[in-house]
Amino acid sequence: MAQRPHHLQPRAETVRVALVYRDVTGLGVSHIGLGVSAAYTAKTLRHHGIWAEVWPTQSAAKLRDRLRHAHTSADQRGDLRPTHVILAAPWIPTQDLAATAAEFPEVRFVVVSHSNVGFLAADPHAIRLLRETADLQLATHNVFVGGNSRKFTDWATEAWGVTAVCLPNLYCLTETFPEHDRRWQGGALRLGLFGANRPLKNFLSSAAAAVELARRLRVPVELLLSTGRNEGGNQRALDEMTEHIANLRVTRTGWLSWPGFRRLLRTVDLVFQVSYTETFNVVTADAIAEGVPVVASDAIDWVPRWWQARADEPLDVARVAERLLRDPDAPRHGRAALKAYVDGGLVDWRRFLCPDVAQITGMPARIARDDA
What is the pairing mode between strands 52-57 and 294-297? Predict the structure, then answer.
């Protein structure tokens, strides 16, 4: 007797996940957040025995073409068809999403918000698409609204009256090398401030903390900026904050490829990420993977509590920074926090991909019961 299809009898070995992000370049390789997140989530899932691949896509029409080709190719090879399409961020028009889901009724589609509620203030259209996806979830069997953090999905579940799916960012830890950990020895200090320049990223508090560290530590301080595009942040305000400060030099590296950015991180002693609102924050994970401590805000709640500073208080940011610089165990604590986050994220992914979590090898039955 032939095996029943995945949508009728979910099993880990029959999962086929396509992680889709909007590729505006058409190059197929991304060095921005959503593309990097998709690549590392796929890499992590594959490392843990779940088939996944990344599909850079320019439009809903091209996504449908890719699905048709994947179905035809799988049938010709006697292989399994895609079972899940995970859309990174809301960008496909709702009518196109509905039409695609109707054409592929055996595929489950999830539109995942990579922003928490506060960050969505910058994108009202995304809010509309997410809300309309929740309506589709009520009306269909294979469309779901989701998020990459429980802060968002818990709210969405209550506000929109559907069970929002939590699919956290995953981060592959197979290429971390503790022997390369950064440990400041008290000499010249290199600080990193990275990401798109947006007001909610709160670059100014980090720059103000760098000013305080230059004054307090009395060592040469270099603040490295890799911000790429300016998305509403006031670059001139940062320039004014850091000009004519003894011991402080600002270096703009320009937007780097992701491998290039990882190489830059290996030369940095500490990174600032004191955002007002976040879900995961890839920069923080990249820094931890390279053995570099991070001053975060409580918006990045998966890092150790003592890494979190009050975002709008530069002196508190400087206090946490100095503590981490003098803590030789900070890189180890960061890796432990990232591993715990990824382990928990894998539970969420497995629960959605294979609802009978208790039957998955290595997953204790109590997880399924406690979180039911």
Answer: unpaired
